[in-house]
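Hi Y.,

Following your request, here is the sequence exactly as I used it, all 47 residues.
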Amino acid sequence: MEDLAPDAVGPGLLLVAARVGTTRLIDNTVVEIGSSGRASRAPSVEP
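Below is the corresponding structure, written out as tokens. Let me know if you'd prefer a different format.
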């Protein structure tokens, strides 16, 4: 893994891991790095 350059732009992958009691939760999502600065909505998931 490498540090992100201050002027980096483009897609990135945000990874999250947490523990709730004895359950481990792991998720990831694509994020846009260095875009217009607006927060983007996460893609919706069909049930």
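Residues 8-35 form one domain.

Thanks again,
Q.
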